[in-house]
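Worked Example 4.2. Consider the chain below.
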Amino acid sequence: MLFRRRKPAGLAERLRGLFWPRKGFSRPFQYFRMRIVRLTASPHAVAAGFAAGIASSWTPFVGLHFLFSFALAYLVAGNMVAAALGTAFGNPLTFPFIWAATWEIGSMILGGGDSSIGRHLDLHHLVSTFDLSQLWRPVLEPMLIGAVPPALVTGLAVYGLTFHAVRGFQARRRARLSQRARMRLSEAVDGGVSV
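Applying the procedure from the previous section yields the following structure tokens:
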């Protein structure tokens, strides 16, 4: 096997790896950040696409986040790959918090802060019968309306952070490439003189 360990991990090490990864929890975030800043597009396109993906993750329509992010990225001239990567904000770990927050915000907007709107809701029955007309008013409408404020706030914040990160990365990369080109040119000139 090509990438097999020389010494197989024991039971204790495998159990520890379930709760604490060998390289730590920050490594996937670092990889994800580098994947975003290395996209070959303008800083605006990358930042707008990534912000569109994150903004679309606030909507309650889980299966349609990619389509929403692509449509939003198209409207703001964003990168489609960055939009797809931005939808990773909505994942099984964050969805309970996203849904609770959007429902609370939406019910405050619609009901003026009355918290008794959704107390007598039989969600299991509504979802099992899948009657969209009965599911729309008490659940989906508040979540959809409640998704707008956090989507705007996170979208604008992420746009600014991503724009500056991508612009800085691309400037450093251009400087490195031009320095390498100057070194190669000077080596070629020195090599031509000495011959």
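The mean pLDDT is 85. The radius of gyration is 24 Å. Compare this with Example 4.1 before moving on.
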